[in-house]
Write a structure and sequence with these properties.
Helices cover 10% and strands 44% of the residues. It folds into 2 domains: 3-35 and 168-426, Neuraminidase (6 Propeller), CATH 2.120.10; 44-160, TolB, N-terminal domain (Rossmann fold), CATH 3.40.50.10070. The chain has 5 helices and 30 strands. The longest helix is centred in the middle third of the chain and has 17 residues, at 144-160. A hairpin with a 2-residue loop joins strand 23 and strand 24. It has helices at residues 11-14, 17-20, 62-73, 93-98, 144-160; strands at residues 34-38, 45-49, 76-80, 103-111, 117-125, 130-139, 169-176, 179-186, 193-198, 202-207, 213-218, 225-230, 236-240, 246-251, 257-262, 269-274, 281-282, 290-295, 301-306, 313-318, 321-326, 334-339, 345-352, 355-362, 368-370, 378-382, 388-395, 398-405, 411-415, 420-426. Helix 3 (62-73) packs across helix 5 (144-160). By secondary structure, it is mainly beta.
Length: 431
């Protein structure tokens, strides 16, 4: 990161930017994130989740994963059933209604001849004595956890009315000792995989819209360089390696371009470049610093941080450049804009009373809501369904991740003893 960017970064971060900005873990086993839940939704739905018949055959307990997902969402009160129930078990709806359950989940796991597992489930409405949904999935042993997440997604969608995001993935950086890792995990912090290991900082990871690639900034060349990495093949493409700082990559919704912040011509400005590194085009040309660009949900606009008003504030301009309009007016220091998938809400970090905290702004009416009560927050990222925001914060003496619902009612944290975790980015829905 170039020196002319440092006054837009928290002073305590700027001092250690070349080392403490990135993040990685020691071993995959150590790096599993521990989840702690606090807060609940405005209206919790009481749901009974039975142990699935024969689920001990599978590598993971499917019903336990479903329970954990729904509890983490904050919108469900889970009622124990006591004994396993398959999707063919006769149901006494009146009995379950009397136990206080509005919904009941039953299912089974069977091993197939080819080594896969057949995971089946039914979602039942005890009030209407009717089936709400059913799924059957054949999954490889290592994919049974994903099958459970997909069932939780289906339950969430049927009962909450919004698409669930349990089967999505997150990426983040962990620093352990002198080692940095870019890691990818399930949304619940399990199933950690290492995408990149380095002795130099890794910052600003960003998922491609199709979930197959991650763009990031690596200091392995002793300067910030933007890469795009295929998560399957591990193949990397250098997208920006110009003189000075190359930073803050953000994907266009169609996955063809990246908005980036470059200081190649002096002060840091916003550019757009092809995902393969071709066709670089400058979008801003000011006497200040323009950085942290983020495409809007429809790809028509770019939000970015600029000090053109005297201190860092968030602005919006056309994706083709031109005049910019200021978006944030409360507080003297607002950075790290992120736009909700529906384009209605802007999340950002604001410094007020010496605290760096997460805020959300309703773009239609300017209503602002503080979403965190900690003091050192950074790097917000929306879940693909727009219902939650993940961000980095201090957890004791280590950096950890926190998730909060957009209304501020539901919170949970993800932390590990393996290292300092920061720079989270929430991946898209997978097809």
């Amino acid at each position: 990161m170039s020196k002319n960017l440092l006054h837009l970064i928290r002073p305590d971060r700027a001092a250690g930017l070349a080392t403490a900005l990135a993040i990685v873990a020691s071993s995959a086993a150590q790096a599993q994130l521990r989840v702690e839940i606090s807060g609940v939704g405005a209206n919790q739905i009481p749901i009974a989740i039975a142990a699935f018949a024969d689920e001990s055959l599978a590598p993971q307990q499917v019903s336990a994963i479903i329970k954990a997902d729904l509890l983490r969402s904050g919108f469900f009160k889970v009622i124990d059933t006591g004994s396993p129930m398959s999707e063919t078990t006769p149901i006494n709806y009146g009995d379950w209604k009397s136990r206080g359950a509005d919904a009941l989940v039953v299912g089974s796991v069977q091993r197939l001849a080819d080594g896969r597992f057949d995971v089946r489930y039914r979602l039942l409405d005890t009030v209407k004595a009717a089936q709400l949904s059913a799924l059957a999935q054949a999954a490889a042993p290592q994919m049974t956890r994903v099958s459970a997440h997909k069932i939780a997604d289906d339950i969430y969608e049927k009962l909450i009315g919004a698409r669930g995001a349990f089967a999505t993935r997150i990426a983040y950086v962990t620093k352990a000792g002198r080692e940095y890792r870019l890691e990818v995990a399930d949304a619940d912090g399990e199933g950690t995989q290492v995408a990149l290991r380095s002795n130099e900082p890794i910052i600003s990871p960003a998922w491609s819209p199709d979930g197959t690639k991650v763009a990031y900034v690596s200091f392995e060349a002793k300067k910030p360089v933007i890469y795009v990495q295929d998560l399957v093949t591990k193949q990397r493409t250098v997208v920006a390696n110009y003189k000075g700082s190359n930073s803050a990559p953000s994907w266009s919704p169609d996955g063809k371009h990246l908005a980036v912040a470059l200081s190649r011509d002096g002060l840091t400005q916003v550019y757009v470049v092809g995902a393969d590194g071709s066709g670089l085009r400058r979008l801003t040309n000011t006497a200040g610093i323009d950085t942290e660009p983020q495409f809007s949900a429809d790809g028509q606009s770019i939000y970015f941080t600029s000090d053109r008003s005297g201190g860092p504030q968030i602005y919006k301009m056309s994706a083709s450049g031109g005049d910019a309009q200021r978006v944030t007016f409360n507080g003297t220091y607002n950075i790290s804009p992120r736009v909700a998938p529906d384009g209605r809400t802007l999340a950002y970090i604001s410094r007020r009373d010496g605290k760096f905290q997460l805020y959300a702004l309703e773009l239609s009416n300017g209503q602002e809501l503080r979403l965190s009560d900690t003091a050192r927050d950074e790097s917000p990222s929306f879940s693909p369904n727009g219902k939650y925001i993940m961000y980095a914060t201090d957890s004791g003496r280590r950096g950890g991740l926190a998730v909060v619902s957009v209304d501020g009612r539901v919170r949970h944290t993800l932390s590990t003893q393996a290292g300092d975790i920061r720079e989270p980015t929430w991946g898209p829905f997978m097809k």
